[in-house]
């Protein structure tokens, strides 16, 4: 439990103990009314510490009329008309409800931390022949670090010596450790399981995978859901309204009704204020969304804010990238055709230039080449999203990419009819040949598409920069409703705009992708989902939800959690409003006491917390 929360409970416990002692003393002895007032006033000041502090903070933010204001006015009014015990008890019960809510939030945040916090505690930097333990944040790009068995990788790096098995389950969900050696990239948050390796730092700690993921988690609650914002807007007008109603109840009867007692109607007005206190309503919504975020965290799904859960629950159109999202993104070279070069020259040139690309196809070309790599032979590398990559290789201009790349430089190339990806190679504006590379569907792609279509009646769309043949073949196999191929990043964005314009107000569009060229559509969609924590930085930044495990069924899990969370939010709001209406009516006509009004509000708060916690427990 956080230190601040412990202090809160200590103050509350002291208030309860003092209150119990004061009530006992008042019952056993005949205290003067003035002495009794000062005793209970002192206890009241202890009991209401959190409300006074909360009200002061809101005043500093120029937010005067809130639940703390209502409770303070109501209980001060009760003290003023002689209902000392009830006034202090009302404040204590209110604080108990608030403290229970704080405990619930604290536990939920701990649940999130338990499943997501994979930050390394330290790093071992090599300084000459010595190994020095340092803070991961002090590492610089180019530093050499040592990672021993059992230690977490502190920052993203490339192994320079040694071989080991790396456990990446916390990042990717892959249960089988991955064997890595010299030249392989390793990611912060992974755990070294066997051998000692040395690695060169490639990213600062703040830019590494683990820091990006934790930042998403820690900022999640800063983004408010539409429902949560609605409740806050509602209470902005609701609080002044009930305050005005309480004033009328307090003033009108004594003035216009013969024999009406001021003390009676002031007390009744104070009961109305307590009955109207919106604490249960205000707290029920964020607690439910926090529960949904925690439930998602248990499944390896990082949700950046409750608003994205709400929008995901309304989603009816799911737009997918193809390569690395619907397909494995693990390619292999199927065919090599050389026009003005030999096949070995074509592979050598392509492998050297593509080594600078982060596209999955590049690795397949490196594997097919199989020779030694000399970085000094390649300069002036430039990636052109939607086209390919260009560079200088041994003094010659090389362009490698799709048919659009060839058209961009005015070179005629063979039109290859295949469902696989064709890579064309241009050498000094001459046609060097082509390489055919194949990919395969992810194992759970069919199940995921079928579930989204049948269970959630989703419209399934694919946007890809791949050829018409390759794209349509995947779309047909997955029974997708629409497939758009040979798209540039700006074309994908334009298509996304069209989909969003066709939506009804209550519907939402979800986009799922993993690459740099997916970032614009991920950012534009109502909800952007990035596949895997090891996806492109731009995609993770643009996305609203990040799947730690690169598995398509997690999308179904996310939708299920979102719908369950929104259902619980609706239940909490409806229950709070109905109970609030009933209690207000009873309070206005004098059928309930201040005790009963407070018990009802605290009860609403506690039941809302219990209901919200069910979302987390269901997804354990």
UniProtKB/TrEMBL annotation:
It is found in: Cell membrane; Membrane. It comes from the Bacteria. SUPFAM superfamilies: Calcium ATPase, transduction domain A (SSF81653), Calcium ATPase, transmembrane domain M (SSF81665), HAD-like (SSF56784). Gene3D superfamilies: Calcium-transporting ATPase, cytoplasmic domain N, Calcium-transporting ATPase, cytoplasmic transduction domain A, HAD superfamily/HAD-like. The keyword Cell membrane applies. The keyword rRNA-binding does not apply. Residues 123-218 form the P-type ATPase A domain. Its EC number is 7.2.2.21. Belongs to the cation transport ATPase (P-type) (TC 3.A.3) family. Type IB subfamily. PANTHER family: CADMIUM/ZINC-TRANSPORTING ATPASE HMA2-RELATED, CADMIUM_ZINC-TRANSPORTING ATPASE HMA4-RELATED. NCBIfam families: ATPase-IB2_Cd (TIGR01512), ATPase-IB_hvy (TIGR01525), ATPase_P-type (TIGR01494). This is Cd(2+)-exporting ATPase.
């Amino acid at each position: 439990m956080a230190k601040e929360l412990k202090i809160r409970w200590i103050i509350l416990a002291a208030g309860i103990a003092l209150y119990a002692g004061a009530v006992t003393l008042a019952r056993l002895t005949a205290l003067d009314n003035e002495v009794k007032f000062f005793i209970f006033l002192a206890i009241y000041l202890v009991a209401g510490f959190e409300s006074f502090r909360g009200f002061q903070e809101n005043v500093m933010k120029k937010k005067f009329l809130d639940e703390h204001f209502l409770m303070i006015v109501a209980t001060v009014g009760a003290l003023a008309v002689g209902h000392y015990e009830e006034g202090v008890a009302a404040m204590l019960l209110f604080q108990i409800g608030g403290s229970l809510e704080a405990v619930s939030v604290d536990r939920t945040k701990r649940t999130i931390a338990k499943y997501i916090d994979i930050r390394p505690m330290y790093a071992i930097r090599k300084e000459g022949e010595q190994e020095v333990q340092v803070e991961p944040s002090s590492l610089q790009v180019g530093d050499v670090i040592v990672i021993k068995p059992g230690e977490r990788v502190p920052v993203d790096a490339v192994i320079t010596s040694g071989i080991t098995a790396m456990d990446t389950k916390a990042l990717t969900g892959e249960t089988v450790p991955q064997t890595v050696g010299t030249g392989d990239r390793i990611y912060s948050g992974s755990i070294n399981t066997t051998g000692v390796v040395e690695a060169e730092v490639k990213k600062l700690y703040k830019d590494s995978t683990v820091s990006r993921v934790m930042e998403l988690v820690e900022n999640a609650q800063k983004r408010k859901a539409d429902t949560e914002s609605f409740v806050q807007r509602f209470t902005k007008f609701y609080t002044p309204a009930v305050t005005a109603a309480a004033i009328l109840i307090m003033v009108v009867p004594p003035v216009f009704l013969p024999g009406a007692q001021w003390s009676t109607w002031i007390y009744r007005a104070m009961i109305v204020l307590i009955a109207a206190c919106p604490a249960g309503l205000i707290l029920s919504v964020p607690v439910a969304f926090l529960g949904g975020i925690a439930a998602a965290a248990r499944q390896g799904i990082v949700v950046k804010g409750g608003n994205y859960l709400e929008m995901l629950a309304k989603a009816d159109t799911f737009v997918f990238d193809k390569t690395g999202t619907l397909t494995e993104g693990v390619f292999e070279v199927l065919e090599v055709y050389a026009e003005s070069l030999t096949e070995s020259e074509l592979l050598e040139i392509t492998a050297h230039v593509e080594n600078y690309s982060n596209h999955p196809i590049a690795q397949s070309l490196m594997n097919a080449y199989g020779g030694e790599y000399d970085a000094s032979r390649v300069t002036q590398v430039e990636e052109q999203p939607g086209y390919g990559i260009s560079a200088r290789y041994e003094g010659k201009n090389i362009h490698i990419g799709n048919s659009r790349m060839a058209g961009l430089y005015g070179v005629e190339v063979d039109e290859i009819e295949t469902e696989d990806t064709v890579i064309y190679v241009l050498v000094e504006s001459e046609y060097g040949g082509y390489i055919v590379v194949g990919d395969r569907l992810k194992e759970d792609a069919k199940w995921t598409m079928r579930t989204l279509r049948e269970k959630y009646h989703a419209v399934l769309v694919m946007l890809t920069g791949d050829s018409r043949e390759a794209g349509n073949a995947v779309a047909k196999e997955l029974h997708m409703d629409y497939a758009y191929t040979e798209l540039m990043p700006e074309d994908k964005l334009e298509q996304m705009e069209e989909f969003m314009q066709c939506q009804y107000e209550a519907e939402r569009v979800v986009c799922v992708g993993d690459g740099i060229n997916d970032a614009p559509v991920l950012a534009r969609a109502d909800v952007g989902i990035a596949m895997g924590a090891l996806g492109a930085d731009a995609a993770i930044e643009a996305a609203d939800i990040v799947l730690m495990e690169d598995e398509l069924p997690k999308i179904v899990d996310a939708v299920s959690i979102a719908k369950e969370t929104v259902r619980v939010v609706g239940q909490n709001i409806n229950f709070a409003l109905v109970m609030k209406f009933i209690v207000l009516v009873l309070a206005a006509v004098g059928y309930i006491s201040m005790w009963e009004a407070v018990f009802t509000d605290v009860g609403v708060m506690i039941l809302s917390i219990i209901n919200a916690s069910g979302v987390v427990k269901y997804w354990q």
